[in-house]
Specification:
The chain is mainly beta and 117 residues long. Strands 2, 4, 5, 6, 9, 10 and 11 form a seven-stranded mixed β-sheet that branches. A four-stranded antiparallel β-sheet has the order 1-3-8-7, with no helix packed on it. Strand 7 and strand 8 form a beta hairpin.
Amino acid sequence: QVQLVESGGGLVQPGGSLRLSCAASGRLFNIRSMGWYRQAPGKERELVASITTGGDGNYADSGKGRFTISRDNAKNTVYLQMNSLKPEDTAVYYCNLKVLFPPLNYWGQGTQVTVSS
């Protein structure tokens, strides 16, 4: 079993920054990637960014140039630095961990990010 604990969400003004953290614990074998998804009210959950164990990052177009994903393999932690935040970034952000084999997805409980003046 894998547990994911997120932190760092909150209320920020447009143009501001937030840093999300996600710490993984448990049976951490054959990890393919860790990343962040988000879900706004009335919308489907969507990828924000992901990063492989080798450090290769993948970003949704909405966050390119503003968001940076990084990971500390020694701490089994992934970070999402979000700059120049916009009201449309408002959503619940979920940490995700993908296992290569067997193919499994694990999710955190989510952390609310609200961008508003």
